Amino acid sequence: MVQYIHAVLRNALQNAVREELVARNVARLVQVETPDYEVGQGLTILQAQRLLETVRPTRWYSLYVLALMLGLRRGELLGLRWSDVDLDRKTLTVRQNLVRASGELRVQAPKTRRSRRTLPLPPPVVAALRRQQEVQARKRSAAGSSWARNDLVFTTSLGTPIEPRNLTRHFYSVRDRAGLPGIRFHDLRHTCLTLLLSLGTPPHIAQAIAGHSHVDVTMMIYAHSGMAEQTEALRKLGEAFNPSD
After folding, report:
1. Consecutive H or E run containing 244
2. CATH fit for domain 45-210, picks 2.60.40.60, 1.10.260.100, 1.10.443.10, 3.40.50.1980
3. What pTM was computed for the model?
4. Digits of tens for pLDDT over the chain (245 positions)?
5. Of 65, 75, 117, the residue nearest 95 (C-alpha)
6. Which of 78, 127, 146, 230 is deepest in the core (most CB within 10 A)?
């Protein structure tokens, strides 16, 4: 909270300096500690596969594939429209979020320019989206005239937007059945970014996929290493110093 207030004040004073209303921006002289971000546990690739196998029989499967393989936020998933997806060109564009605000569901534009992004779709995601088209066609046929006409990719059985809290409740159920207690839905995004970085993806590419404003956010929140990674890194360093050992 302190960091946010300081940033707002610093920006306001900087505008005042440009307008020659004040001589200098005194807020820039104040040092504010970098906040500690809560970093979730994330999943290993085997755990992620187990989660997908658990959710595969349900209508939510494709949503989980996109969460794990593209790192989309919950609101980005629920606000995704078919007009944002091009399966022929194999791309997906994030243009809006679905959130609950002031007691109602609202569609909002992404907060930053980098959050509005176009992503290439790997084959498993293309397959998941084609499956979702079939799932939605069956639901639309079953609902008949009760179907709510909208362009959303992920909807209820009547075509209405999915309540974000209901997705979270469903995730908790799937998570527990998969034997993965303590994992949050947001950790699926964390999993995507951590696995990308562990596979050698350059940080600026991971940043673009995540839609982070700055690459240091990507590295600070997601590029943490566990004891196994540290052990392997130091083992390699030891071999470099003593190649004959």
Report:
1. none
2. 1.10.443.10
3. 0.77
4. 565 576 667 777 777 677 666 778 877 777 766 555 455 567 989 999 999 999 999 999 999 999 999 999 999 999 999 999 999 999 999 999 999 888 889 999 988 888 899 999 999 999 999 999 999 999 999 999 999 989 999 999 999 999 999 999 999 999 999 999 889 999 999 888 888 888 888 888 888 998 887 777 667 655 455 556 666 666 776 777 776 65
5. 117
6. 78
